[in-house]
Write a structure and sequence with these properties.
The structure is a homodimer of 389-residue chains. With 389 residues, the first copy, chain A, is an alpha/beta fold. The first copy, chain A, has two domains: 168 residues, Rossmann fold (3-Layer(aba) Sandwich); 204 residues, Up-down Bundle (Dehydroquinate synthase-like, alpha domain), CATH 1.20.1090.10. Chain A has 15 helices and nine strands. Chain A is globular and about 65 Å long. Chain A starts with a strand and ends with a helix. The relative contact order of chain A is 0.11. Chains A and B meet through strand 1, strand 2, helix 8 and helix 9 of A and strand 1, strand 2, helix 8 and helix 9 of B.
Chain lengths: 389, 389
């Protein structure tokens, strides 16, 4: 078991009605609020009005940044930073999914960034940054951005989508009822995202960080059990709550404590897909993951034990032929995604080979995947992309 | 699934050599340190010298409070508060097990308490308290006091041992190598304590908080697998690390998120044993737990499903007769404690019926166990104590 540092200062209010904590969460920082949100779904479900009533009744002064993109762009970050400076913002309130929260995190850090080029900050300035305080209200179970310090920002000019460390939310309000109206497609994609966050860390060489592996397996099993229920009964509170509880922990680092780092290969490969084609992140991950698994299992059979464990402990499969078991675990994962309505080929997303070489090169830039669970080079990634067609 | 609030500000450095973070952990608060510790085991393992070298080299001014008791007494709290005031202490450094950390938490809160009577603060002042900052270095895997805000203080004059909310440590340093020298008896008792923290919350009426239950089951299985290894090979790093990782999370509240509160019946009953007889907390819990389980299963068979789940998911037992399965789960728990060297009767600790009535009355004072998983009154507790003889 390896060393780890736990340092998550975020306070979480989880459950129906948790919005009652919003006013106190903001007021500790001041009364000038930047409200960041996406395409307007928060208006459709009545959440926008609920928030504005609380803010108006509380005497807050609100500046709005709407239209934050599903793969949030550096231009939105720049616009948010400008609004914060112009309006002497005390605290940023992000309302939405991971994209909105990620964008607002970058805004909070960008506010104090002294350079001119915010993309330089995203790409090159490492580690957590001095930031404005951030409060968020989550509306989809997917990214875990409510309980981690990172964010992913896209630059369509350079075809880059990059993760960076910004700041932890001070307070996250997680009310599963806000996810009742999330479409079946986005619910399934969000669950694939949760599962990917776990699988990226689960497939590690470390064998003896038992609590971390157990938490990872529990999250996978909980999502596997609850996603089909949420799709069938979109307002099943228990199913939505379980998915939300899992998404929050899945990206926190906790399921990887004590384990050798793994490179998060599927995320590196998916960010290229999203950067070039602006697809839904969770869908890209679902398509890539089983192909990545088969590829690395073939490339380095010494990692088979981990696939056997995955098949047994996550899917409850049994059998004496370990190789067969490893493959069955991958097959059942692929079937699970498919059965829950996720398109499972790049062809279905109208993506062809055109940019595969550039994407593969960029995914492996600077030897980024050289220390992955199974190290990958550009040619490996090319093969995996092709398997996804 | 019920609502929960997550609010744990503690930063944890886990693993061999984490003491390298001690200096920065203290310095953020100042240079006047109160060093609290117990009976001198930290001198035996060389940790005292290691700490003093770091503090002396760093120019810290150290005031010592040694001799903190295994069931820490209110007199030690009072002494610590006095030392903090006399020496203008900036930060308290607790080095030891849960008892030392609990005592230092009470000192940190007592420093700002305005009344004369610190026992009144422990017994009657609810909620977290304004406190001096606390840093701790853990030397035994047991109580989780390094990752929670509570503490348990004993008043031998009134025969009371009471839990209270004080403050979270700012930084906890968890190095498993410091537990290599912990005796077999204390290692086993500590593991029983970890398991009890889980079982107290696991036996709840809430059926659908799946991640919390999964984490609880993982912690129990991890302790069950690693305790015998740690007893056989006291310096097995992996086993000691797994026990320490579990102890930290077990008492954090995380394994109970979303679940109906349970009353922590065994802790209430055990605190009476420790208050009257000053026994090892984990041993008292190990003795009480299987008897409590059999008693409540008989009193309220509607809770049988939870025992069946415990038998299956924690112990891997199988069978069609659910009642038989429930009882087998309890029997194997009792056998596990016994096999690992824990005395499993009160008789072995020279405790007889003398104070049972007073203890039972006090454990149920103010209807404290009226809302437990299975509600208990004084007569119920009397029966459970008698079963332990």
């Amino acid at each position: 078991m390896l060393n780890y540092t736990h340092d998550i200062p975020t306070k979480v209010y989880f459950g129906k009605g948790s919005i009652t904590h919003l006013e106190e969460a903001l007021r500790q920082f001041g009364t000038n609020v930047l409200l960041g949100y996406g395409g307007g779904s928060i208006k459709k479900i009545g959440l926008y009005n609920e928030i504005m009533k609380i803010l108006n009744d509380g005497g807050f002064r609100v500046t709005e940044l709407s239209g934050i993109e599903p793969n949030p762009r550096i231009e939105s970050v720049a616009k948010g930073v400008e609004l914060c400076k112009e309006n002497k913002i005390d605290v940023v309130l992000a309302v939405g999914g991971g994209s909105t929260i990620d964008c607002c995190k970058a805004i909070c850090s960008g506010y104090y960034y002294e350079g001119d080029d915010l993309w330089y900050m995203v790409k090159h300035v490492k580690g957590p940054k001095k930031s404005l305080p951030l409060v968020d209200i989550l509306t989809i179970s997917a990214t875990g951005s409510d309980f981690d310090g990172g964010g992913v920002i896209t630059n369509l000019e350079t075809n880059e989508k990059l993760g960076a460390s910004f700041t932890y939310p001070s307070v996250s309000i997680l009310d599963p009822t806000y996810t009742f109206s999330v479409s079946a497609y986005q619910t399934a994609a969000g669950s694939a995202d949760i599962m990917s966050h776990i699988m990226e860390g689960y497939f590690s060489r470390t064998e003896d960080s038992e609590l971390a592996d157990g938490i990872a397996e529990t999250i996978l099993k909980t999502v596997i059990r609850n996603l089909p229920i949420a799709l069938k009964e979109p307002d099943n509170y228990s199913a939505r709550a379980n998915l939300m509880h899992c998404e929050s922990v899945a990206c926190s680092g906790i399921p990887e404590y004590g384990k050798q780092s793994t490179g998060w290969s599927c995320h590196a490969m998916e960010h290229e897909l999203s950067a070039y084609y602006d697809i839904t992140h969770g869908v890209g991950l679902a398509i890539l993951t089983p192909r990545w698994m088969r590829y690395i299992l073939k490339k380095d059979p010494s990692c088979e034990w981990r696939f056997v464990r995955f098949a047994k402990n996550v899917w409850g499969l049994e059998g004496n032929d370990e190789h067969e078991l490893a493959l069955s675990g991958i097959a059942i994962l692929e079937k699970f995604f498919k059965d829950n309505g996720i398109p499972m080929t790049l062809g279905e997303l109208n993506i062809d080979e055109t940019h595969f070489r550039a994407m593969a090169d960029h995914a492996c830039e600077g030897g980024r995947l050289a220390n992955a669970f199974v190290p990958l080079e550009s040619d490996d990634v090319m093969e995996i992309y092709k398997d996804c067609l």
